[in-house]
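**Backbone shape codes:**
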Amino acid sequence: MAAPSTPPPLFVGCAAGFSGDRTDAAGPVVETLIAQLAAAPAGARAFLIFETLAERTLALAQLRRRADPDAGYEPLLDDLLRPVLARCLAHGIGIVSNFGAANPRAAARRIAALAAEAGCPAPRIAVVEGDDLRESDAMPQLRTLLGDRIAGRDIVSANAYIGAAPIAAALRDGAQVVVCGRVADPSLAVGPALAHYGWADDDWDRIARATMAGHLLECGAQVCGGYFADPGYKDVPGLEAVGFPVAEIDADGRCTIVKADGTGGCLNEATVKEQLLYEVHDPAGYLTPDVVADIAEATVQAAEDGRVALDGVRGHPRPDTLKVNVCYEGGWLAEGEISYAGPRAEARARLAGEVLAKRLPALALRIDLIGAVSIFGDDAGRLRTATPDAGLRDVRLRVAAAHASRAEAERLVREVTALYTCGPAGGGGVRTALTPRLNTVSCLLPRTAVPVAHTIVCTGEGR
């Protein structure tokens, strides 16, 4: 009896790890995917993913949509996608992203326009919806769950972290581009794997392995040395041109990671291990909408050709709940900075902070001495008051406060500016800012309360 044939592989490259990431990363990733497809057996598939959401990105996107109904998607969409869209469509590379943010349908329309501008045939584009709960039947349940924490608040955004199933369904429906809002970051890679290999929704081990492949990809350049670099301790060559990663995912979900061809940075066992553990609260129980991944016995092994393999990942049944982030208007944040230099600079900066505290007793001030004590300080200033004056000659004072009233917050801005002539001596380089504040609260909602679906909004011919 002939041995069963090995299914053709799946390649997934990542070209963005957050909103605001570098816009020149996609080119080398796409060229690497094209080369991998050319060397692979017939039937291999490749996908380019963009991960551009963080916890409050969606709230900011909703505010933009309030101002303009055609806005609310990733503001860098054109810069991210225009350089590579035609190449992806010509070579059958699917695109899966969450840069729909608060307005996936508007993002889909913009992508269709970009394809037309590039002279491409109209692509088949799908949007995934259901994560936005603001006007859904789930909102009363959310308000009950969160109670006083959001009572009377102006809710800016309320989004569930949904999983890979609707992405896979859209791809099986022939979508060349899938635009999502708030999906879990690893699900951007799990969706193509589900569609390509046809795994069952409860094939926990395979889904967990693909989830951790997505986890290695989701932060872009981090796994290729970006977040790893620490001069003299963990040196990374060519960091100015750091590459982004590509994963080969096999039929069992196991993955091998490489760095995009011709780029800087480094990819090795250490970079992969650091990213594998990044933001993982429990290595034996990493919760996602698709699966509970278990990396307690995972192995990471590098090969001579620069590839790094991940194995030993196990999976457990997915949670019955989904994480939901709710953002609401939280008053105003006022900030002010001023620099002191030369003899007794630190003493003058400390005195300036004391002056502000005495003049603004109604505000809970956060006072930092940048260059002396800031990052490790707390809002109460305990570390600052416990740390003696070290006699530093270059110190920048930063003061911040939040308040429900804009008028009260503005007082800090005025008082910092007044330090120019009201003393202490020698202050300069004042900068101030007053910005609306967004607060975030999270909870778990039964997944049955969050219906999700995909819709083909641009009916191109597909692949």
Summary: Residues 155 and 328 are 4 Å apart (CA to CA). The mean pLDDT is 94.
